[in-house]
Structure formats: structure tokens, C-alpha cells
Write a structure and sequence with these properties.
The chain has 263 residues and is of the alpha/beta class. It is 40% helix and 11% strand.
């Protein structure tokens, strides 16, 4: 994958996200835009696989930050070229703010935050018991680090040395605040290495950095955590780093400006 095709594809994914959420009047734009690049890279390079309802996935992605599932749906739509987001958030549709396991690409319903690591741990343990050594990937928001269940799962994963790659979307924002304003500043490297994890830190919007994930996920067996430095609202100038875009909907003028910037 070259830089030009990566940028073109991720801009297209971002347009799909904006269109689906704006049209329906519901959704989490900021967090979806911050994880677009890593999701597109993981799926397009087949580091993780698009799951099918009711089937086991060899290389699954557990989308712990379920409120950003619009990004996952848009990435699958981009790769499948199906234009399947039309019914997003409409009555009777399975495509919504939070994920349904009945939808292609979704491993678990993770609308309630903080459960991805525990779910991923269960999948990884089941894989080990069945002789499957494929890694399990988990995409976790930094805001979920406020959940106690996350730390319980971190300890379980480390204790049992499960083949899990945890990617933290570190955009430093939660619903109504900057993370640093409500939680103590954490030295991720010291904390996670202290828990027995291999640790790395990458730019979550840089293709060159994201390409380092492939060997890191494939060639390791020990539990590992990578902090991806990202920007909430990435790709739209007036949304980047602005708290209100956690759950706000653009008006017509804003939508048109955003779509123009993402051409």
C-alpha cells in the first residue's frame, strides 16, 4: 500500500462516516474519525479479518470502543464497495450507533464500554485450547482505561500470556472533557511493561508507523499493547481536537465544508 492510495481510501471512509451520521442525526463522529486510519490499515492488509455473523474468525478484531463502530462499518463498506450504509440508524436497521454481532465485521456487541479486553481474552484463551495460534486484536479507547474491568482483563491476559495485541486509540478525549482533566496522567510505557506487556507507541495517522504493526502483531506471542497517538475528529479542520464533536451533528454548511476538505 502506498501513501497516495492510503490517503485516498481513508478520505473516502471519512466521507462515508460523515454522511451516515449527518443523515441519520445520530452518531459519534470524533471518535470514529480518530480510528479510521488504523481500522482501514488493519483490514485492508488483512492483518485482521472481516467477521461473518455466527462464524469463527481466524484473525478477529474486537472493537471495544463500540460507540465508534461507524468507522468499522464504513471501512468494511469501502473494502466491499457495497454502499451498504444507506439504512444507518434507521428504523429496523442493524446498522446503528452501537454494533450488532449480526452485522458483517462485528465480533461482539460492545456498546457498553470497557469489555473488549475481557471478551478478547476469552477468544484468545479459546484459540489456545483449540490449537489456534492466531493473534486476537483489540481496539480500545483511552477513555476506557477509566473502567475497572479493563484492568482486570489486562492482568488476566498477562498472567496467562495470551496472544493478544491491544491497540489504544489515544486521542486524549472522552465525552465532555479532555482525558487529562479527569484522570491522572499515565506513563503508559511504565505501567504496561510493569504488567508484563511488550509496549510500543506509534502515530495512529501515519502509514509509515501503522506499517510497523504487521510484524508486531504477527511475529509476537506475548501480550502486547501499542498506544496510537491520534486526533479526535481527524481530517476535518474544525472538528480536530474539539470536544463538542464527540457526539455533535454538523449543519448543512459544516457538512459541506467537511466533505470539501475530504475530497
Amino acid at each position: 500500500m502506498d501513501e497516495g492510495s492510503f490517503k485516498s481510501a481513508t478520505k473516502s471512509v471519512r466521507r462515508k462516516i460523515l454522511t451516515a451520521i449527518t443523515k441519520s442525526g445520530k452518531g459519534h463522529i470524533g471518535g470514529a474519525l480518530s480510528c479510521t486510519d488504523v481500522l482501514y490499515y488493519l483490514f485492508s492488509e488483512q492483518i485482521v479479518q472481516i467477521s461473518q455473523p455466527g462464524e469463527n474468525t481466524a484473525r478477529p478484531l474486537v472493537m471495544s470502543k463500540g460507540h465508534s463502530t461507524t468507522a468499522l462499518l464504513a471501512v468494511v463498506d469501502e473494502l466491499r464497495n457495497t454502499n451498504s450504509l444507506e439504512p444507518y440508524n434507521s428504523k429496523g436497521s442493524l446498522l446503528g450507533n452501537n454494533p450488532s454481532e449480526l452485522v458483517e465485521g462485528v465480533e461482539f456487541h460492545t456498546g457498553s464500554l470497557g469489555h473488549g479486553p475481557g471478551l478478547g481474552a476469552g477468544v484468545a484463551l479459546a484459540k489456545r485450547l483449540s490449537g489456534d495460534d492466531n493473534a486476537v486484536c483489540i481496539l480500545l479507547s483511552d477513555g476506557e482505561l477509566n473502567e475497572g474491568s479493563v484492568w482486570e482483563a489486562f492482568q488476566f491476559i498477562s498472567k496467562h500470556q495470551l496472544n493478544i495485541s491491544i491497540l489504544i486509540d489515544n486521542n486524549n478525549q472522552i465525552c465532555e472533557d479532555f482525558l487529562e482533566d479527569v484522570s491522572p496522567k499515565m506513563d503508559f510505557k511504565s505501567i504496561f511493561e510493569g504488567l508484563g506487556y511488550e509496549f510500543c507507541e506509534l502515530d495512529g495517522h501515519s502509514l509509515a508507523d501503522l506499517q510497523k504493526l504487521k510484524p508486531w502483531i504477527y511475529e509476537r506471542q506475548a501480550p502486547r499493547i501499542c498506544c496510537l497517538k491520534t486526533v479526535k475528529g481527524k481530517g476535518v479542520s474544525f472538528m480536530e481536537g474539539v470536544i463538542k464533536w464527540h457526539h455533535s451533528i454538523p449543519d448543512d454548511a459544516m457538512f459541506n465544508q467537511a466533505m470539501e476538505e475530504l475530497k
